[in-house]
Amino acid sequence: MASGDRWANPDESGHPTGFAGDNSYDIGAEIMIKEIKGSISASKGNYAIVVSRFNEFITSKLLGGAVDCLQRHGASDEQITVVWVPGSIEITTAAKKLATSGKYDAVICLGAVIRGQTSHFDYVCQQISRGVGQINFETGVPALFGVLTCETIEQAIERAGTKQGNAGANAAVSAMEMVNLLEQI
Ligand code: INI
Questions:
Q1: Which domains can be identified in the chain, with CATH numbers?
Q2: Measuring from atom 13 of ligand 1, which residue has the nearest CA?
Q3: Is the shortest distance between the CB of 86 and ligand 1 below 6 Å?
Q4: pLDDT tens, 121-172?
């Protein structure tokens, strides 16, 4: 069989034929692909969480989700630092300082922007998403975007520990994966 067929014809377990069972794929007679993945574990690493006080009834739930998730995956109290800022606009200022301090392996950014009757929402959302992206790019420290950008309060509630899960916990999972991934690259 040609090596390309291995990907089109997975074995019974869903792996491409030639799966070696150790995160590497035998795709031909000689070539082995090395695959690197970050585990979802907080047994190592220091995590900063920046959380906005604006819409605190939502953001406190995101914070609870993130802290709970890190702790359930092995983080001790000493590994977690929580920093409160006034609103989502201020998240990136604190997050960048934390990311460049050399003390943290990931910075989890949590906020809730909910559309009002003006275009304020759009400016706030744009600034935060660009700012968090830049922190990743400029510092190399993973900055996780756990900022809800919702049309309605109901949408925010759904993503803060009810129907649609908890965006804070999701950001924490991604933070652990990135910390453990970067350690191996
Ligand atoms: N901050 C938020 O975190 N969420 C919002 O929905 C919001 N709205 O809609 O205004 C908001 N505004 C405050 C902003 O983040 C700054 O704190 C403020 O403009 C001072 O710089």
A1: 1-35 (no CATH), 47-184 (3.40.50.960)
A2: 87
A3: yes
A4: 888 899 999 999 999 999 999 999 999 999 999 999 999 999 999 999 999 9
| 171 CB near ligand 1 (under 6 Å) | no
Q: Ligand 1 center to residue 120 CA distance, Å?
A: 8
120 noted as active-site residue: yes
- Ligand 1: distance of its center to the CA of 160 in Å? 18
Ligand 1 touching residue 87 (CB < 6 A):
yes
Testing ligand 1's pocket by substitution, the residue of 52, 89, 92, 118 carrying the most ligand atoms inside 8 A of its CB is 89
Which residue's structure tokens are 């109901």?
Answer: 154
pLDDT tens digits, 10-57: 556 656 555 555 666 666 667 788 999 999 999 999 999 999 999 999
